[in-house]
């Protein structure tokens, strides 16, 4: 990764933070043009994230940008960015369909996929992994899966420990405000069922001049509200919005048993609140208003029962989510085992089993199109092993695997049959394509910077190509092998072609 690419990632995360409230569309588009010019697909994904957040802030549909994030993440083969994109999509499902069970299930499935993608360490940039962890925590909170959210905020803090980069500092701010928001929501939920907490985590004032002003207002306000719910004295050494202070006083009055004053103050605090309250703080505020003296006791009992049912439903959903994550882990483990059976460990190409499975699949097809088989062999590979060692030989095979993988389409196959022997099957090819593709492989091998692996190392390959129909495929491998022999016999580093 170049310094400029790193700077572009930094810029993208800055634009993500600014997207809600201070979105700079022109700056995002300028960053996108640069990302397109340099093929920085990870940067483009992050810029779609910024656009998505700006759409949310403006009350617009952001589906286009969320789908673009997922498409880019799949193409990048990035577990962290795919987890981020899945969690963003889960969050949108949760926001749009809070009261629809089917949609909630869908959000939970997406979240489970994101969680499992983050199970294992990776060598991706820390900022990408941190962004994914934060988003998983955020959507878990949105779905009421508070225990899971807390785990992921803790994992983010551990990952970011000691990171003093600008993006790292911004991500640490997000974790700080999200953790406080979660703790307040949780405490208010307990208060709503009559289980007033008596102790909560001590959230020190970590705001500074780099914090966006509205975040400072929210952080100080939520600290004050959390102290009130927990029955702790207010820390009025920091500025707190007047409406927040009024609601805090209402909560303290309720804890002291003064229902009339609690209802009066809670109602006063309903107008023009400076930021969106956590869900259960808002519900607690409504409950305090509803419980003013004179309210029908049956109505109060009804509200209390609903709060208890809502709490128990949350616990059930948390248990179901743990089960869903376990199922997703088993599914991905099974898929990995299935891939391992047909994938060559060294090169990542198909192995001989994968090659045979591909032939079996084609054997069930009904088309009669043209196919081509390439047998590819590294020239004098034994000499490479003898002169440079087997570790270098393995690296050569890995690079050859990368070169071949770049030359095949999804309908084609590239496989390592063993040693330095490779095969490529081209499906549904037009006349002239196999010859051109073989020439591209020769050129890619010849011009590859082999000296990066070992000084003085050079590598060439010989290729035998045989054309035929699908029905002839079982025989094409041996025919291509004979063509390979011809290529080696006539000097190596060349292509020999025959047709059926």
From TrEMBL:
It comes from Actinoplanes hulinensis. This is GGDEF domain-containing protein. Residues 369-500 form the GGDEF domain. SUPFAM superfamilies: Nucleotide cyclase (SSF55073). InterPro entries: Diguanylate_Cyclase, GGDEF_dom, Nucleotide_cyclase, Rev_trsase/Diguanyl_cyclase, TPR-like_helical_dom_sf.
């Amino acid at each position: 990764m170049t310094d400029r690419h790193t700077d572009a990632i930094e810029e993208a995360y800055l634009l993500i933070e600014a997207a809600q409230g201070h979105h700079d569309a022109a700056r995002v588009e300028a960053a996108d043009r640069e990302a397109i010019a340099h093929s920085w697909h990870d940067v483009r994904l992050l810029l779609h994230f910024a656009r998505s957040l700006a759409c949310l802030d403006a009350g617009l549909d952001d589906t286009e940008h969320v789908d673009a994030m997922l498409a880019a993440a799949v193409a990048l083969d990035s577990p962290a960015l795919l987890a981020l994109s899945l969690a963003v999509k889960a969050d949108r499902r949760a926001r749009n369909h809070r009261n629809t069970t089917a949609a909630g299930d869908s959000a939970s499935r997406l979240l489970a996929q994101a969680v499992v993608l983050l199970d294992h360490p990776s060598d991706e940039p820390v900022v990408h992994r941190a962004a994914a962890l934060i988003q998983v925590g955020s959507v878990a909170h949105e779905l009421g899966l508070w225990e899971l959210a807390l785990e992921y905020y803790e994992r983010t803090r551990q990952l970011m420990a000691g990171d003093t980069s600008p993006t790292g500092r911004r991500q640490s701010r997000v974790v700080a405000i999200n953790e406080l928001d979660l703790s307040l929501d949780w405490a208010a939920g307990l208060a709503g069922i009559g289980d007033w907490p008596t102790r909560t985590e001590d959230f020190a004032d970590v705001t500074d001049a780099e914090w966006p002003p509205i975040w400072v207002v929210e952080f100080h306000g939520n600290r004050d509200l959390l102290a009130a719910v927990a029955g702790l004295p207010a820390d009025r050494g920091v500025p707190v919005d007047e409406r927040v202070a009024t609601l805090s006083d209402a909560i303290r009055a309720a804890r002291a048993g003064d229902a009339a004053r609690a209802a009066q103050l809670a109602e006063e605090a309903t107008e023009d609140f400076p930021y969106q309250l956590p869900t259960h703080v808002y519900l607690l505020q409504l409950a305090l208003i509803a419980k003013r003296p004179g309210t029908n006791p049956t109505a109060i009992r009804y509200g209390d029962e609903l709060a208890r049912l809502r709490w128990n439903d949350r616990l059930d959903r948390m248990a179901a989510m743990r089960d869903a994550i376990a199922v997703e882990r088993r599914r991905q483990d099974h898929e990995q085992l299935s891939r391992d059976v047909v994938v060559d460990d060294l090169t990542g190409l198909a192995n001989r089993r994968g090659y045979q499975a591909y032939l079996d699949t084609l054997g069930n097809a009904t088309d009669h199109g043209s196919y081509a088989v390439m047998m590819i062999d590294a020239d004098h590979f034994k000499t490479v092993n003898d002169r440079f060692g087997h570790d270098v030989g393995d690296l050569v095979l890995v690079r050859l695997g990368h070169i071949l993988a770049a030359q095949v389409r999804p309908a084609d196959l590239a496989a390592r049959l063993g040693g330095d022997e490779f095969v490529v099957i081209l499906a549904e090819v037009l006349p002239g394509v196999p010859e051109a593709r073989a020439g591209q492989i020769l050129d890619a091998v010849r011009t590859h910077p082999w000296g990066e692996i070992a000084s003085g190392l050079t590598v060439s390959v010989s290729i035998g190509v045989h054309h035929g129909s699908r029905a002839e495929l079982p025989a094409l491998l041996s025919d291509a092998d004979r063509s390979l022999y011809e290529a080696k016999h006539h000097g190596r580093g060349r292509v020999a072609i025959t047709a059926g």
